[in-house]
Specification:
208 residues, mainly beta, Porin, twelve-stranded antiparallel beta sheet, 12 strands
Length: 208
């Protein structure tokens, strides 16, 4: 659920809260059967006008996980944020460069499961043509590590993820909008083979 506290050309501030339940059923994993985990979320977002052409915006999500964490392997706390600057050249072209961080950690000192860290630079080039919007983007990995296999090897494993993608959106000007997205990502790991992934998405959004 999202609530917009303030919205004008100079400053906007909103807050999102949420709850999610995860159900797991494990097959062919010794000692595991089922798990039921909950996630609580609170996330402020903001947009600040610095000059007529330059804005500072972003969001910060804070998560709390509970129940069956030793089975699922999740850390009990997570923070995720993306924030940066957007410069508008004209009505058609803008450039947005953000810093992204996602960090999983444990507030409970007796745990070390599921901890990880991801830092990226994310750059976007939004192009607006009437009701159409096209946004090429890239994600450049700065630093990434994980210890998802903490039960067998407590040492952190390093990774290098990079992505290029394209987002297309159409606004019907009646509250309804649709989107298409494609991205290609390549991943290198300290342990194991490199991976390559293709992502595709379709979205429908309605604003009341």
């Amino acid at each position: 659920m999202h609530y917009q506290f303030l919205e004008n050309d100079d400053f906007s501030f909103g807050l999102t809260g949420g709850f999610r339940n995860y159900g797991y059923h494990y097959v062919d994993e010794p000692g595991k059967d089922t798990a039921n985990m909950q996630r609580w979320k609170i996330a402020p977002d903001w947009d600040v006008k610095l000059t007529d052409d330059l804005r500072f915006n972003g969001w910060l999500s804070m998560y709390k996980f509970a129940n069956d964490l030793n089975t699922t392997g999740y850390a009990d706390t997570r923070v995720e944020t993306e924030t940066g600057l957007q410069y508008t050249f004209n009505e058609t072209v803008a450039l947005r460069v953000n810093y992204y961080l996602e960090r999983g950690f444990n507030m409970d000192d007796s745990r070390n499961n599921g901890e990880f860290s991801t830092q990226e630079i994310r750059a976007y080039l939004p192009l607006t043509l009437g009701n159409h919007s096209v946004t090429p983007y890239t994600r450049i990995g700065l630093d990434r590590w994980s210890n998802w296999d903490w039960q067998d090897d407590i040492e952190r494993e390093g990774h290098d993820f990079n992505r290029v993608g394209l987002f297309y959106g159409y606004d019907f000007q009646n509250g309804l909008s649709v989107s298409l997205e494609y991205a290609f990502e390549w991943q290198d790991h300290d342990e194991g083979d490199s991976d390559k992934f293709h992502y595709a998405g379709v979205g429908v959004n309605y604003s009341f």
